[in-house]
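pinging the channel bc i need a second pair of eyes. not urgent but kinda urgent?? the chain im working w is below, pasted from the shared doc
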Amino acid sequence: MFSSFSSFSNPFRLPRFLSSSNSSAINVKPVEVHDVETQHDKRARTLKHLLKLNHANHAIIYHDLIFHNHTAHILGSAYLLSASADHLNDIYNYESKELEPWRDSPNEVSTYDWRDYLGDARYQRAYVDFFEDELVLNGYDWRKVLEEYLLKGKEPLINNLISGRKYNSHFLDAGEVLTVRELAMEALGMAATSYNHLHKYLDNPSYTKPSPNPSQSPLQLICRLQKDDRFNGTSDDQSPKTVEQVFSSHEDQLLEYWNAWQITNPTEEFKASQMAAAALLVATHRSGGAPYDFFLCHILTTSHAVRILLPLLPPKYHVSLVRQWWLLTLSVYTAQLRPEIVLSSVADYDLERRDWDWVNKQAVEGKHALDAHYVKALRAMETAAETWGDDDQFYQKAAVRFGHEFDGWGGFGLAAEDGSQPSNDNA
């Protein structure tokens, strides 16, 4: 989502949270970041003010505590794509139409009981207040606060950063890249309120076991899953609740595939997973058919968030964070009825001289430039191309095809009929 930093003044690299190394490290370079807190040009000032305005006025979870506030993400993406100050204001005005004000939590949280309310979205205000108080006590060093509450403890929050349909790693993505303290505290608030039972798969080593049919290719495993008739009849619809239904009815089979990805060369296999993430969004789409799948898009953008975070985290958390993404991928792909991946639909796509400049123009000037997930998906594919290279133009073709064909989101199933899908694409 955020990658083209070379044109910005005074870029710098963020330090790792901790200094350590081991063989499980995934070696990707930290992205260069732009500190909008200290820049004085109009675009930077506009972004800073809008991010702070959103933080002050709007809850991070809304619509019956279901949808997530993605305003910071699309603002950051558009800014890094050189969007004008006017366009940034347009984005904020569009996004804020559906957002809701903060509401008081049932009570405050403290250092003594902060884990007691994990997973309860009613405490979003209390958690953000608590983490901001901790920020003050730590001399406004938000990295220290993240280290204390994200990485420490017997069951650290880092092991549930990607918790089912709650993709809270995106807030950390925005906070790390744009170095705005408020975003980092929102990240922790989202991590705390999104906490759920999925943490057990990382915290409890008994769920990790040798697979009888391992593979080093996540795409190969996804294609195997697509043909696995044990998952037939998993769900009669594609409503947002089907991820939970999949775990309820097919936990053993999901964990079989989860353990089947044998990560022996972490960097190369993470590279393969990013290609698989792009394929899941674009190569499952049929031109002229149903709209692009909203939930498969989250597999891509979450992979991007993982890519941003990896070089900032101690290596011992690298593989476990990627395995969280893998569990999300398997569950969402199954919930969305396992559409077939046709790689030739990307590999053989005719670019017609459209390049990354064309893609970026669609993101900030096209008719979908106000759609947060559309913009983030385009940014994610460009960042992957910059990270790994794109000699076969797979990412460029995927981005151009998606940018050209996109005309709204699908994949909601019955949710679209009962009005529970996000009308402003903010789930």
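so Residues 1-21, 414-420, 422-426 have pLDDT under 50 and may be disordered. and The longest helix spans residues 242-260. — does that match what u expected or am i reading it wrong
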